[in-house]
Design brief:
By secondary structure, the protein is mainly alpha-helical. It has five helices and two strands; from the N terminus they run ααββααα. β1 and β2 form a beta hairpin. About 5% of the residues are buried. The model has no long low-confidence stretch (mean pLDDT about 80).
């Protein structure tokens, strides 16, 4: 967990506690929350958002057709360039139409059974 997320959470908790204490102290009057508490809440939210955005990183993935780790080309966000993005997908051993090709309606069950029996025969041999 990022230190900024912890710090922002502590600032928000402190602002909530201050607001609770302030309202317990001023129950009889109808006044608004002090500006210091509002600023503390805003600062806490900004710190939490910055910590959350800075903790987003691309993870490695395992290839489907091969047992290798595929590292992303960039650390934080995937490239927008379509040729690079499809290159990353193809390096995993799948095609860009994998979701459509693996739907139950489009799978050739007889072919899959044949592949499985061949695989099983190779495993036993």
């Amino acid at each position: 967990m990022s230190a900024l997320l912890i710090l922002g959470s502590l600032v928000l908790l402190h602002a909530g506690y201050c607001s609770y204490e302030y309202h317990a102290f001023v129950k009889t009057t109808g006044s608004f929350v002090p500006t210091e508490i509002i600023l503390e809440v805003i600062i806490g939210l900004v710190i939490i958002n910055f910590g959350a955005l800075s903790s987003i990183k691309s993870r490695y993935r395992l290839g489907i057709t091969h047992d290798e780790v595929v590292w992303p080309p960039s650390t934080f966000l995937m490239p927008i360039n379509l040729s690079e993005a499809t290159g990353v997908v193809n390096s995993l051993g799948i095609s860009e139409h994998e979701e459509l090709e693996t739907r139950r309606d489009f799978i050739d069950v007889k072919q899959k059974r044949k592949e499985y029996t061949e695989w099983l025969a190779n495993q036993e041999a």
